[in-house]
Design brief:
By secondary structure, the protein is of the alpha/beta class. The chain is 44% helix and 15% strand. The protein contains 8 helices and 6 strands, in the order E-H-H-E-H-E-H-E-H-H-E-E-H-H. It has a 6-stranded parallel beta sheet with strand order 3-4-2-1-5-6, sandwiched between helices. The longest helix has 24 residues. It is globular, with a radius of gyration of 19 Å. 33% of the residues are buried. The protein binds 3-methylbut-3-enyl trihydrogen diphosphate (IPE) (2 copies) and magnesium ion. One 3-methylbut-3-enyl trihydrogen diphosphate binds next to helix 1.
Length: 244
Amino acid sequence: MNQIDSDNLPRHIAIIMDGNGRWAKKHMVGRIRGHKKGAQAVRATVRACRKLGIEYLTLFAFSVENWNRPEQEVKALMSLLDQYLTDQTKELKKQGIKLKTIGELKLLNSSIREKIRKAKEATKNNNKMIVNMALSYGGRDEIVHAVKKIAQKVKNNEIDSRQIDKEMLSMHLYTAGMPEPDLLIRTSGEYRLSNFLLWQLAYTELYFTNTLWPDFTKEDLLKAIASYQKRERRYGLTSEQITK
Ligand code: IPE
Ligand code: IPE
Ligand code: MG
């Protein structure tokens, strides 16, 4: 903790929470048990980020590609999500956290959608931190979705195609209005983005750890932040330009 500079915290941390299945295998239990343990790590990480004063935490909980997993596993993941929403809404409220989501929510079943709606409603006035859950999320789908919305506006003569620029595209993504992630963490030793926040990660600092998501603790989070704080974000400039 004393290695962390509280004046240089990432405003927005995004996490690809990976390795639940391998954790289960390692402990010789079923994959679902791995996901359950993973859900506990979510609760602990949200608490730790809130305490540290992180403004935005985006968690990759379920990808559009994950729909293609075995039916039993998808069912179990949905039921864990349901449980999380049921027992964490109060907790989020207590901690002053606002819940947001990104992704194709219409693919979720209506009872979960209703719970998400209620959790958002219950936490909408909170301003200590935003927890942004990526559910049924795919980065390419998100960009296609944004392009379609813009095309429709052009067709309706609401905008002229010459007005289309990076800012406009950003404003039509699910993450509209949120700052881009400063730090992306991926657990479980995989070095890929798996279709996560493709547009938004353009200048994000990437951090990979071998820790499996169910084993991820506050110490792992602090290590990632400490690594982030040692880096120089140059955005294409020279080091001299940044430090002068
Ligand atoms: C991440 O753990 C959770 C989800 C993708 C829903 P995995 O289930 O992908 O775990 P591994 O990659 O099989 O170990
Ligand atoms: C990415 O993990 C999705 C989530 C963490 C929710 P995956 O386990 O689905 O990614 P791949 O298949 O290894 O790329
Ligand atoms: Mg995985």
